Amino acid sequence: MLTIAVLDMISLTYNSLVVGFLDLFGTHFCQYPVLIYLNGAFATCVWMTDCLACILLAIERCVKVNSKLFLSFLFGKRMFSVVMALTYLYGLYSFIFTIPAIYTSEYSCYLFDPLLGKDVRPLDSEKAYFSPGQLASK
């Protein structure tokens, strides 16, 4: 729970300041590509890590109710340190290797397809967005 709280506080603070700046000036990706890309990568990283931490919390609560659950071994003292390290490594993986959400000031939000509404290709085409690293977060 502490991990989820810290990730949420970091995400809310960081994203509100950066998104406020980007929205205030109506910036687009072409104006600050590195800032927007890194901010999107960070937002995706925190989101995916938070999702995994929430899934682990739900499993842990189920184990508390039924201690004979087959995943109860994950929450022993030594094993849980490994599980949390893997959670943080998953966040690092998402920061480095997944396609980040890009902020667009037209909609004032992060989108995986920043040209939403301007597509000339059908949604079911081969070029539609897909990231296998984000399957657990969707």
Can you characterise this structure?
- It is elongated and about 55 Å long.
- Helices cover 57% and strands 4% of the residues.
- A hairpin with a 4-residue loop joins strand 1 and strand 2.
- The two termini are 21 Å apart.
- The chain has one domain.
- With 138 residues, the protein is mainly α.
- The mean pLDDT is 82.
- This is G-protein coupled receptors family 1 profile domain-containing protein.
- Keywords: Membrane, Transmembrane, Transmembrane helix.
- The chain crosses the membrane at residues 12-29, 35-59, 80-103.
Q: How many DSSP H or I helices?
A: 3
- Poorly predicted residue ranges: none
What portion of residues belong to β-strands? under 5%
Order of helices and strands: HHHEE
Counting structural domains, the number is: 1
Mean pLDDT: 82
Radius of gyration: 18 Å
Profile the largest sheet.
2 strands, antiparallel
- Overall structural class, as computed from helix and strand content, comes to mainly alpha
Work out the number of β strands. Answer: 2
Largest sheet, spatial ordering of strands: 1-2
Question: What distance lies between the first and last C-alpha atoms, to the nearest angstrom?
Answer: 21 Å
Descriptive keywords:
single chain; 138 residues; mainly alpha; two-stranded antiparallel sheet; elongated; 7TM_GPCR_serpentine_rcpt_Srt; transmembrane; G-protein coupled receptors family 1 profile domain-containing protein; membrane; transmembrane helix
